[in-house]
Amino acid sequence: MSRFVFWTGIYNAVLAASLLFPPMYRAIGLNIPAPIWGWLFSAFLAYTSLVLIYASKDLHRCAPLVYWEALLRYAAGLLLIAGGLFGNLGLTAAAVGTADLFIGLVYMFGLPHELEVSHSALLLDKVDPDGRAKAA
Hints:
Blueprint: H1 2-18, H2 22-27, H3 35-57, H4 59-85, H5 91-115, H6 119-123
Keywords: Membrane, Transmembrane, Transmembrane helix
Transmembrane segments: 36-54
Protein backbone atom coordinates (compact mmCIF):
# COMPACT_ATOMS: atom_id res chain seq x y z
CA MET A 1 0.00 0.00 0.00
CA SER A 2 2.88 2.39 0.75
CA ARG A 3 4.18 1.95 -2.77
CA PHE A 4 0.73 2.64 -4.24
CA VAL A 5 0.43 5.83 -2.17
CA PHE A 6 3.91 6.91 -3.28
CA TRP A 7 3.15 6.39 -6.98
CA THR A 8 -0.18 8.20 -6.75
CA GLY A 9 1.79 11.11 -5.27
CA ILE A 10 4.04 10.99 -8.33
CA TYR A 11 0.91 10.85 -10.53
CA ASN A 12 -0.33 14.03 -8.83
CA ALA A 13 3.04 15.69 -9.44
CA VAL A 14 2.90 14.86 -13.15
CA LEU A 15 -0.64 16.27 -13.36
CA ALA A 16 0.48 19.38 -11.48
CA ALA A 17 3.35 19.95 -13.88
CA SER A 18 1.13 19.48 -16.93
CA LEU A 19 -1.42 22.00 -15.67
CA LEU A 20 1.22 24.73 -15.54
CA PHE A 21 1.39 24.90 -19.33
CA PRO A 22 -1.83 25.50 -21.30
CA PRO A 23 -0.38 24.13 -24.58
CA MET A 24 0.51 20.90 -22.76
CA TYR A 25 -2.90 20.26 -21.22
CA ARG A 26 -4.68 21.28 -24.41
CA ALA A 27 -2.53 18.78 -26.33
CA ILE A 28 -3.84 15.93 -24.16
CA GLY A 29 -7.45 17.03 -24.57
CA LEU A 30 -8.14 19.13 -21.49
CA ASN A 31 -10.08 22.32 -22.03
CA ILE A 32 -9.52 24.52 -18.98
CA PRO A 33 -11.24 27.85 -19.66
CA ALA A 34 -8.52 30.16 -18.28
CA PRO A 35 -4.86 29.48 -17.39
CA ILE A 36 -5.40 30.75 -13.83
CA TRP A 37 -7.64 27.74 -13.11
CA GLY A 38 -4.99 25.34 -14.37
CA TRP A 39 -2.41 27.03 -12.17
CA LEU A 40 -4.70 26.89 -9.13
CA PHE A 41 -5.38 23.18 -9.66
CA SER A 42 -1.67 22.65 -10.20
CA ALA A 43 -0.86 24.18 -6.81
CA PHE A 44 -3.49 21.99 -5.14
CA LEU A 45 -2.12 18.88 -6.87
CA ALA A 46 1.47 19.78 -5.97
CA TYR A 47 0.51 20.03 -2.31
CA THR A 48 -1.38 16.73 -2.31
CA SER A 49 1.52 15.15 -4.18
CA LEU A 50 3.93 16.13 -1.41
CA VAL A 51 1.52 14.94 1.29
CA LEU A 52 1.11 11.54 -0.38
CA ILE A 53 4.83 11.04 -0.94
CA TYR A 54 5.50 12.07 2.67
CA ALA A 55 2.74 9.79 3.98
CA SER A 56 4.04 6.82 2.00
CA LYS A 57 7.28 6.91 4.00
CA ASP A 58 5.41 6.26 7.30
CA LEU A 59 1.97 5.02 6.35
CA HIS A 60 1.05 3.88 9.86
CA ARG A 61 1.51 7.37 11.26
CA CYS A 62 0.09 9.28 8.28
CA ALA A 63 -2.74 6.96 7.23
CA PRO A 64 -5.52 9.43 8.15
CA LEU A 65 -4.05 11.95 5.68
CA VAL A 66 -4.29 9.36 2.91
CA TYR A 67 -7.78 8.32 4.01
CA TRP A 68 -8.99 11.92 3.78
CA GLU A 69 -7.32 12.16 0.37
CA ALA A 70 -9.77 9.43 -0.72
CA LEU A 71 -12.63 11.85 -0.03
CA LEU A 72 -10.89 14.52 -2.12
CA ARG A 73 -10.45 11.96 -4.90
CA TYR A 74 -14.18 11.19 -4.87
CA ALA A 75 -15.09 14.87 -5.12
CA ALA A 76 -12.55 15.50 -7.88
CA GLY A 77 -13.60 12.35 -9.70
CA LEU A 78 -17.27 13.23 -9.75
CA LEU A 79 -16.61 16.81 -10.84
CA LEU A 80 -14.16 15.78 -13.55
CA ILE A 81 -16.41 13.06 -14.93
CA ALA A 82 -19.38 15.41 -15.05
CA GLY A 83 -17.29 18.22 -16.56
CA GLY A 84 -15.74 15.87 -19.09
CA LEU A 85 -18.96 14.19 -20.22
CA PHE A 86 -21.50 16.98 -19.85
CA GLY A 87 -19.38 20.14 -19.73
CA ASN A 88 -16.60 21.39 -21.91
CA LEU A 89 -13.55 20.06 -20.05
CA GLY A 90 -12.96 17.27 -22.57
CA LEU A 91 -13.07 13.50 -22.36
CA THR A 92 -9.59 13.44 -20.85
CA ALA A 93 -11.10 15.03 -17.73
CA ALA A 94 -13.61 12.18 -17.51
CA ALA A 95 -10.77 9.64 -17.78
CA VAL A 96 -8.76 11.41 -15.06
CA GLY A 97 -11.91 11.55 -12.92
CA THR A 98 -12.45 7.82 -13.33
CA ALA A 99 -8.84 7.21 -12.26
CA ASP A 100 -9.41 9.45 -9.21
CA LEU A 101 -12.47 7.43 -8.18
CA PHE A 102 -10.50 4.20 -8.49
CA ILE A 103 -7.56 5.59 -6.47
CA GLY A 104 -9.97 6.85 -3.80
CA LEU A 105 -11.53 3.39 -3.51
CA VAL A 106 -8.11 1.76 -3.15
CA TYR A 107 -7.19 4.24 -0.42
CA MET A 108 -10.49 3.91 1.43
CA PHE A 109 -10.64 0.13 1.42
CA GLY A 110 -6.94 -0.73 1.21
CA LEU A 111 -5.83 1.26 4.25
CA PRO A 112 -8.22 -0.34 6.78
CA HIS A 113 -7.35 -3.77 5.40
CA GLU A 114 -3.58 -3.24 5.44
CA LEU A 115 -3.44 -1.48 8.82
CA GLU A 116 -6.20 -3.59 10.40
CA VAL A 117 -8.07 -0.55 11.69
CA SER A 118 -11.62 0.66 11.22
CA HIS A 119 -12.81 3.32 8.82
CA SER A 120 -13.84 5.46 11.78
CA ALA A 121 -10.35 5.19 13.32
CA LEU A 122 -8.86 6.52 10.08
CA LEU A 123 -11.52 9.17 9.59
CA LEU A 124 -11.15 10.49 13.14
CA ASP A 125 -7.34 10.09 13.36
CA LYS A 126 -7.55 7.43 16.05
CA VAL A 127 -4.62 5.37 14.73
CA ASP A 128 -1.47 4.83 16.80
CA PRO A 129 1.87 5.11 14.99
CA ASP A 130 2.15 1.32 15.13
CA GLY A 131 -1.01 1.08 13.04
CA ARG A 132 -3.59 -0.03 15.61
CA ALA A 133 -6.70 1.85 16.64
CA LYS A 134 -6.18 4.03 19.72
CA ALA A 135 -8.06 3.11 22.86
CA ALA A 136 -10.95 5.42 23.67
